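## retry 2 of 3
previous attempt timed out at serialization; input unchanged, resubmitting
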Amino acid sequence: MATPERLVVIGGDAAGMAAASQARRHKGPEALAVTAFERGHFTSYSACGIPYWVGGAVDGPDALIARTAEEHRARDIDLRLRTEVTEIDLDRGRVRSRDLADGGREAWTGFDKLVVATGARPVRPPLPGIDAPGVYGVQTLDDGQRLLYGLRGAPGRRAVVIGAGYIGVEMAEALVHRGFQVTVLDQGAQPMSTLDPDMGALVRTAMCGMGIEVVTGARVTGVLTDEDEGRARAVVTEDAEYQADVVVLGLGVRPETSLAEAAGLPLGASGGLRTDLALRVAGQEHVWAGGDCVEVRDLVTGEHRHIALGTHANKHGQVIGANVAGGYATFPGVVGTAVSKVCDLEIARTGLLESQARAAGLQFVTVTIESTSRAGYYPEARPMHVKMLAERRTGRLLGVQIVGREGAAKRVDIAAVALTAAMTVEQMTALDLGYAPPFSPVWDPVLVAARKADAAVRVTGSTGPR
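## retry succeeded, writing output
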């Protein structure tokens, strides 16, 4: 009997275990031996669900796990939890691991093919007190458990969230649901740097209306601790001090590529691994990478950038698994679609912001419209703002942002498809979308924006170059 090929997967969440599972579907254990390493306690879970678990909207952690370690092992995947890979030896085709549950015992494991799916790490700036008890990052289920335990033991009900991106606003909502008085600090002009400032201002107004204190232009300089336990008691900015019983970091994430970099694997400008369309690491025949540790191609600009989303990670894993098993699949790229919410306010974007379009050297027009989620006369029709960017002269759609109440966020999918297909705003106006008064006005808000953008493209100078 021939010796099976050896596949090693580093990282046991979305991309890593999707790759392992897909490879196993194509090849049985007699042809492919699969070993996966995960340094945490959990595998194949929804990190996007953590804020809703913390806020009490969903149960956890079991409800957030798509497939347990036992289920993976039952499919002949040697999954090793609480085991951290500390070194990749490409020349000898092996990885060194440390058993975190067994006194740090180390061992080498050989591979013929390697998948790097090490994810991302929360940004934790080197500030005084940032590592004190009572300061929490939120990236893994282990992080979520630590935070929930910390909330139960907090001496008071004051919480400070540092950062107002997706994680920051979602954690602000979770803390409100837990009965905390919440202050959000962000150094930007408005919350949600993934939106243009004018759309971020709508988010700020809604957050303040929910009782969340939003402080922008706030540069955090450190965390003060108490003298007895060294626990966080306040967050300090250049201008003020904010009392805190709990501090949550919502500053975004960076690719976790220190292991790959030490092995000499190539990184892009954002620090993510560079891969080809098959997600094979550049310059490596038998090494693939996917998930939050890689850069992806932006289909609007053609450039590569880091976008950490579970939707991408799962697709990466499917592609990698097929290729590892000898098939051929590709991941062409993304348009940067993301949705979120803070209480009942829905937030969505896809494509480019104004700043990104300028950085790409594009000339464009912008329009913003206000519409409703349903026919205006239908009960509970809610306001919705849609902002659209289109390329001057060609009319090619460049980006869409939506802020509104129920029924707003998923409308961005219309724009995501249009961006992927490189449609113009004129072509979008002819889209045959579903209509009935309980679901939409006769002209869907996205199409209203497309009509206005098309008119702006046709009239030279109507909105001025950006």
